[in-house]
Design goal:
209 residues, Rossmann fold, alpha/beta, binds thymidine-5'-phosphate
Length: 209
């Protein structure tokens, strides 16, 4: 495949979407085709699964295993319907989250096991791995405070946001571990730097000058 697959990871309020927009504009201005995807979602089926995952209220809890499978199902569809064809056309694919999110949130956060979730996702993605992953790292409390101040009206948190603090600490620890295990793929970025500094670091890593 000729394109480039870049994923963006991090906890809540890390500023992933801002960076994805900025990089997308930058690459387009250089004449590249850019495809932006978000997880869960990014396809019609995936967006339906996103609503179920985020807001489902069937009067009983979605089991943790079900949740992991729903994320993997949305991802499988996204890979086959959008990501692989885009890479075959030579596009840059910028994905707001990918497999690392499941390994961190379901594997470590929900304690389903990082190895098991990685294995499930190898099946879902056919083994597709990003060329580079930008992990925007923020202390858990800082990310929380940012997310809240941006949406003070959000009294009613969605299912994923109403997890306890300890959950998000496990998620961050998982990203630390993943970055140590994949030093050639995962670039840690200090999320407390300014938007401009982070954008410049990303452009530098991509050798775009
Ligand atoms: P976001 O749109 O802010 O990234 O929200 C997506 C939420 O879903 C976020 O809390 C992270 C969570 N998530 C998982 O738990 N597992 C996954 O595989 C993905 C993609 C997201």
């Amino acid at each position: 495949m000729r394109g480039k697959f870049l994923s963006f990871e991090g906890g809540e309020g890390a500023g992933k979407s801002t960076q994805i927009q900025l990089l997308g504009e930058n690459l387009r201005s250089r004449g590249f085709e850019v495809v932006l995807t978000r997880e869960p979602g990014g396809t019609e089926l995936g967006e339906d699964l996103r609503k179920i995952i985020k807001y489902a209220d069937y009067g009983r809890e979605i089991s943790q295993e079900t949740e992991a499978l729903l994320f993997a199902a949305a991802r499988a569809q996204l890979v086959s319907e959008v990501i692989v064809p885009a890479l075959e056309r030579g596009a840059y694919v910028l994905s707001d989250r990918f497999v690392d999110s499941s390994v961190a949130y379901q594997g470590a956060g929900r304690v389903l096991g990082m190895t098991e979730i990685a294995k499930l996702n190898r099946f879902a993605t056919g083994g597709l791995v990003p060329d580079l992953t930008f992990w925007i790292d923020l202390p858990v409390e800082v990310g929380f405070a940012r997310a809240r101040s941006r949406h003070p009206e959000l009294e009613k948190k969605d299912r994923m946001e109403s997890q306890e603090l300890r959950f998000y600490e496990r998620v961050r620890e998982a990203y630390v571990k993943l970055a140590a295990q994949n030093p050639e793929r995962i670039v840690r970025i200090d999320g407390e730097k300014s938007i401009e500094e982070i954008a410049a670091q990303i452009v530098f890593c991509l050798n775009l000058s």
